[in-house]
Amino acid sequence: MKKLLALALGLVLVLNVAAWAEVVIAFSQIGQESDWRTANTDDLKSAIENHPGWKLVYDDAQQKQENQIKALRNFITQDVNYILFTGVVSTGWDEVLKEVNEAEIPLLLIDRMPDCADKIEYVAAFGGDFVEEGRRQVAWAGEYLKSIGMGDKDVNVVIMEGTTGASAQTGRTEGNLKALKDYPHLKLVGQQSGNFTRAEGQAVMESWLKSLDKIDVLIAQNDDMALGAIDAIKAAGKVPGKDIIIVGCDSVKAAFDAIVAGEMNCTVECTPLYSRFVVPTIEALEKGEKFSKTVVHPEEGVFDTNGGIDLGTVKSTKAADVISTRQY
Ligand code: AHR
Question: CATH fold of 2-128+273-296, please?
């Protein structure tokens, strides 16, 4: 009897120590607006949930800033060990992120950066270089047109923007507009938000096809909007990828399929796979290593129908050659 009691006590002790030693990582995600976002959620969720000794507390804010603010305050109340954060828009985070700092919970920024990043403390930031991605989109269109002997012809360009006020939108728009100046034959005739979703991308393209005389090039700030636009273009009796050149962003699997099928021309990569940075960073922090505002922009590519378009910082790769190796 005594032995049994000792065994039970030992077990309770072991379980308590295990619970006490658990590392709790909270993740405030924006929502599920795109294939990119789904890949990003899956990547981080599975890496954290499958890591021995780690526990994930996940919150999907359904595209609402107020939900994200509430989630961050809940994480503070729960006294989690780390917070992963990406903001639906870039402004309005000062107060709540200062509260995270005051609670001394290490903050890791991923994907979209808040405007207040230089006024708060964070351990590390992993995200796309959105201005460069936007530049690459327009430069690809300009260089591609040159490569097919159309470099001196005026062409009508529309820019379909992401969620207004998201750093992925403001950065890509900045890059798009700056690069347009290098290609004076690319004439901007439309610029509107499709909110990073397929349905809104389709609706915006439908309205452009009715209201604009001619569209030659679509620059869509993500692939989901490009894919929605393809549906609208087909429904209007036009041929996507031929009558209208389509440049997306993200490089999700569905965009590769559309390029290989000849319905889309190019996608500029923005990787959603951040667990390969987040996991080693938290492991190192757990061992006592110190980080301060380390910023990492992952290496990214550009994928198109034939490859070989030189964009200065990168040369495009033929999508069909690498489609089987893609992870998302
Ligand atoms: O912040 C990254 C962007 O957000 C991706 O390009 C887009 O697809 C996503 O919704």
Answer: Rossmann fold (3.40.50)
pLDDT of residue 85: 98
Low-confidence ranges of the chain (pLDDT < 50): none
What are the domain boundaries of the chain? 2-128+273-296, 130-271+301-325
Q: What is the pLDDT of residue 21?
A: 79
Instruction: List the CATH code of the domain at 130-271+301-325.
Output: 3.40.50.2300
Q: Which tokens is 170 given?
A: 């403001």
Q: Which of 28, 34, 252 to mutate to test the pocket of ligand 1 (most atoms within 8 A of CB)?
A: 34
Q: Which residues line ligand 1 (CB under 6 A)?
A: 33-34, 36-37, 111-112, 168, 196, 222, 224, 249-250, 270
What distance in Å separates the CA atoms of residue 259 and residue 294, rounded to the nearest whole number? Answer: 35
Tell how far the Cα of 20 is from the centroid of ligand 1, in angstroms. Answer: 36
Q: At what angle do helices 275-286 and 35-49 cross, to 10 degrees?
A: 30
What amino acid occupies position 244? I
Nearest-CA residue for atom 3 of ligand 1? 168
